[in-house]
Structure formats: C-alpha cells, structure tokens
Amino acid sequence: MSRASQHKRAARAKDRARQRAHDKQRAQTSGAGSNGFAHDGREMFTGGPANSPFGTPRQQAPRRLSTRHLLDDARSGAPQDPLVRVAATIAPASFLADTEVVLITWTAELYGNGWQPTELVRFVRLQGSRAGVGLIELAMWAERTAREGPTATDPRWVEQWQAVGLPARPIAPGWVHEWAGGSTRDVVFSEIFELAALLGTAPRLELLLPPPPGVRHAPPAVSGPSSGSTDPMLARVRALLAKAESTEHESEAMAFTAKAQGLITKHAIDLAALHSEQPVTESPQLVRLTLDPPYADAKALLLQTLAEQTRCRTVFHATLALSSVIGYPIDLKGVELLFTSLLVQAQHGLAEASAIAPPGSRARSQSFRAAFLRGFTERIGERLAEANRLAYANADAGTFLPVLRSKGALIDGFVTEHFGDTVARTVRGGFDGHGYARGQLAGDRAALTAGPLTT
C-alpha cells in the first residue's frame, strides 16, 4: 500500500472515531438533561426548531423537570415508576417544599370544583391509603392557614374544618417533611404520586360552599346556607328521633319516627298554606349525604324512599358513595335527620338478627343483609306515606296541594338542569327471601300513631 493510501485510510478512521464520539455524546444528552434528570420518554426540549445560518438544526437546551411537572404528570395518570426515578434526582428538601405549594393549590382547586373538606377526606380514605389521608388533611390545614377573606371565618367552612378535625391554629411550613417521617425516599415519592393520581380522578361536584378567594369555579348550586336549622319544629324532630334511636323497643322507635315524619309534613303544609296566594319564588337547594359501605346502594334506596316521602329528590353518585338530595330547606333538614335515625334503627335490627343467628348461617351473609335493608326500606316507605296521608287528612288539601305541586315541579327542573338524564340501577348484594321478610318485620312491628306520643 502506498504512503498516500495509508494517510487516506488513517484520516477516514479518525473521521469515523470522531463521528462515534459525537453520536455517543448526543445519545447521552438525549438520555439526561444538564441537571442529570433521566429522560422518561417525553419531549424535553422547548420551542420550535432553530436553524443556524448554514441550515443545520441547532439543539435546544433541555427543559428542567420540576416537582410541579412531575406531580402534574402523576395527577394526569402517568406511570409512577419513571416519576419516582426522576424525582430521586431532585434535592429532597426542594421536592418536599415544592410539594407543599402544589398540594395547597390543588386543595383550593378541588374546593372550587365543589368538594367539601369532609367529602375530600372521605374520598381519599375510601379509595386511597392511610398515608394519603394524613397528607390531604395536612394540605387542607395549610390551605386553611393561608386562607384570607370572608370565607376564612365563614361558619359553614369552620363547621367543615371542625368536622375533619383541623386545628384553628396555623401550621408551619415543613409539614410534608414531618409527614414523611422515617420512611424511605422511594416510599415517600410513591405515596405522594399515588395521592396525586387519586386527586386527578375527583370529578366536579355541585358547589355548596363559597370557594376560596381567587379560585375559578362554577356558579353555586345554592344561594346560601339552608334556613331553618334553629327552627323549633326541627328541635322537636331531633328529640323524637333521639328517643327512637335510644329505645330498645321497636314499637316505640317506629312510633317516634312516625311522629317526627308527621311533624315535618305538617310544617310543610302550614308553610304551603301560608303562601298559597303567592307564586313560589324561592329556589330548591341541595345537600350531599354520605353512604358508607357496605351496602351503599341499599342505603341509597332507603334515602331515596325517605326523600320522596318528604317532597325531595335524590341522585346517587355510586362511585363516590354519596347522594345529592334536592328540596327546600326544612324538608332537606328533615330528610337528613330522619335518614340518620332510620339508618341507626336498621343497623340495630341487623345486629340483633346476626347476634341470634348461629355462625355460618345465612343471617350473617351479604345477601341476607342487603335484602334485610331492602325489606326495611319498603316497609318504612309505606309507613311514612301513611303518616303523610294522616297529616294531609287534617288540612284543607285545596289550600296547600297546588303550592306543593309547584315546588315539586321546580325540584324536578333543578335535577334536570344540574344532573341531566339520570338512570335507574339495581341494588346489588343478591337477594334472600328470609332477610327481606326480616327487614319488613323490623319496619312493621308497630302501628303508626297519628296523635301525640309520650315517652
């Protein structure tokens, strides 16, 4: 080989070596940014292609993946493992501090989407983890600390915060770090991303409380707090239902419950008669009631039956185990009180049936319990309808019925406007004839009493 050929071959070898080095450097750049973050399969460069004067594309600086980016990705449903690997390249103190800011912002946004503190904690408890519950409670506490304006002292918000158990005193920064405790880094990251993913699935609800300042929100479903919470009639209803829950005799419990229903209906009649010469101008309002598992749909059927007998409507949110109840203030409060009392009585009956049943018997089965609640619900509906009939019989129907019908039409329109078309669903849990009969018996042990009751 001539010397000229040797020089040419050596030059080509150097060119190939330089090209291999250049390709390796480009591969490393695409796999990690200047801050050392591993590429997780997304485009990491910002802006459009920029060309040099020679027409060769010029590489852009890689985008730094911040804590907010990672949490947003987790909330959008991105896989956790790549996010955990990238988060490990961020200084832990910086990651945890930034997480605090993001969680406070998200909490306020969820409030703007209609979620109340008690509902948000319950949602995380039912579908998340214990660690997630602790973290969302801390986020709500921090959001309360940062809250300014009228809603910071609004009695409805204060009541919600107290129900969750949030202290009134401020919380200091660093609460995510304290929450993390002695857990390993990857466990902490996974739990944070798991909570973010769960919060990303929270649907929009009807707005019941005034949202925090500066938060975008839909128009509220109600114009203000429910009236009548201090009405003397409701105080009498509470007293009757407390007696119904405390007595060990089913006949007394049912008599007290019937009397409470009669009081609520009589009050509605009196109000309708009072306003019979005036058009109905007030708007229906809405409350949400929780239906804790098990047998949430059977409990929803009990609530629906009770609401219909109290001139209200319900919409069951099955995935959230919540029911929206639509009606007028006094009736809504009555539904809430009666439902709580009747649920306690139904659970007492179930406990009694299970206590006397031998181990392994069907009285302890899921189908028995679900059927028990359905039988109990049917009988309660019949008895409350009878209580209403007796209340209507003692009044001039021509005076109040047109007003009640007008209110019912407005409630139906409210349901259509805010919830669209609803669908019927079957109560799950199987069916057991013996359980159904026992449930009916539990709701049918005493004749309804129309007159005054004594203890």
What topology does this entry show?
Blueprint: H1 3-31, E1 50-51, E2 57-58, H2 67-75, H3 80-87, H4 92-112, H5 117-127, H6 130-146, H7 155-164, H8 175-180, H9 185-199, H10 232-246, H11 250-274, E3 285-290, H12 296-308, E4 313-317, E5 322-327, H13 329-356, H14 366-393, H15 397-419, H16 433-442
Antiparallel strand pairs: 1-2, 3-5, 4-5
Structure description:
The protein is mainly alpha-helical. The protein folds into 2 domains: 67-199, no CATH class; 232-442, no CATH class. The chain contains 16 helices and 5 strands. A 3-stranded antiparallel beta sheet has the order 3-5-4. A two-stranded antiparallel sheet has the order 1-2. The termini are far apart.
Relevant terms:
455 residues, mainly alpha, two-stranded antiparallel ribbon, 5 strands, 59% helix, 5% strand
Give a nutshell description of this structure:
The protein is mostly helical and 455 residues long. It has helices at 3-31, 67-75, 80-87, 92-112, 117-127, 130-146, 155-164, 175-180, 185-199, 232-246, 250-274, 296-308, 329-356, 366-393, 397-419, 433-442, and strands at 50-51, 57-58, 285-290, 313-317, 322-327. The strands form 2 sheets. It has a 3-stranded antiparallel sheet.
Principal-axis shape equals elongated
> Total domains, how many?
2
Work out the helix count.
16
Sheet with the most strands, sense and barrel status: 3 strands, antiparallel
Give me the strand/helix succession: HEEHHHHHHHHHHEHEEHHHH
Mean pLDDT figure:
78
Which structural category fits the helices and strands?
A: mainly alpha
Strand content: under 5%
Oligomeric nature of the chains: single chain
Termini gap: 120 Å
